[in-house]
Amino acid sequence: MSSQISLAKNSKVVSTDELSKLKDSSLFRTEAFVDGKWVKAASGKTFDVKDPGTREKIGSVTDMDASDVRKAIDAGNTAFESWKKTTAKQRAALLRKWYDLIIENKDDLARILTLEGGKPLIEATGEVLYGASFIEWFGEEAKRVYGDVVPSPVANSRMVVMKQPVGVAGVITPYNFPNAMITRKVGAALAAGCTVVVRPAHETPYSALALCELAQRAGIPPGVINVVTCSGENTPEVGRELTTNPAIRKVSFTGSTPVGKMLMEQASSTMKKVSFELGGNAPFIVFDDADLQIAAENLLACKFRNSGQTCVCANRVYVHEAVYDEFVDKFVSLVKQKLKVGHGLDEGTTFGPIITERGLAKVEDQLKRAVNSGAQVIFGGKRPSLNVSGQFFEPTVLVNVSDDVPMSCEETFGPLCPIYKFQSEEEVLRRANNVPVGLAGYFFSRDIGRIFRVAEALQVGMVGVNVGNVSSEVSPFGGIKESGVGREGSRYGIEEYLNIKLLNIAF
To answer: From the centroid of its chain, how far is CA 12?
Structure first.
């Protein structure tokens, strides 16, 4: 099979020139947002943010430390006293205004996202719309936070269950979805009546700051949303402040399992409420009765969305031996036809760079170990030749991969697609579940009995049956085992920011 990679047109982009194309330049902010004001760090320090598609500097952002974060927490704590007393209808109206402004400015938000995160512009626009859907959804859910009246065992008493906002929430978000991971958490928190202090990833802070600008325009009061930006160097102390400060009563984190374990241990010092969405290692199973074309098309999107940098992307692809060769041919053909490597703002790009140097090195290391153990690369497998010096790696398909190499056991978070053979349902379930994490899983079959058996047997929090996408604002997002605790999105997501209080009233 040919490993020729398609390249997008016009593969030379200058990030600073692209900033001048924003319709509203005030959305590109470089200072932190605390108590309704744009502020610098007390130290005056900043850090640089680079475009992963060119490795060029986009700009410099305020570099806060723990002392700065304490001020933001104080602002959130003060604002909470009044925000929690607003009615659900008032909060819903403000969230609706924020949603409308996000939609109105989606093109600028997408351009900012592509510059800092690298994903193709069409994909970035999709993320902005996806992110906005959580603001809309939770604004509507605010009015549906219902309590209960519990029948009392005593004749002269009544029991009422109330739900109240937890308090100030510390929100720590990753670099791969710099817009949607914030809106999915902050939308729920604000709808519940909580205030937030957000620490966005240092690789992608601009999307968070642009959202603050729009939230301020929507009329969300000072101190309700606070965003503290910091460098990688200051990240540990900022995270520690958010997880140990007693004024923070809830921590929401999306990121790797090792970091999640550390933050959870820190948060336990004050028994904070937590919801953690951590690493995954999603199996993608194609049974012999599957529609192979549909399965291949869904694998293309599931595996290579954001260049494989999603926690729910297919990490291990298991195909029944009876249809293995046919499926591999169909899938590789789609990769050749559909994926165009290039800078996210270049015409025709559908496949962008790896966001971090560390992530690129991990991809290359996993590939090398797999090949040294006998795996065969049938498509891709190297850094492409482009006219820019960005962090690109070709979409790569492998066969004959051992179950014992890191690619088979660890989350890749990059564009490597290993395809394995299997013989039986029992065998593939054993192999699919043989990992410590359990976020998402996918399988393709037209046997109704098998659909229920396999869906129930997969040890994951989300299952896609004949589809490679499990996420929307209405669906509960989260995993089991070492993939975290709690759920985001859906009617369950707002519960993560609420306390239950019992009133036992005697008369």
So the answer is: 28
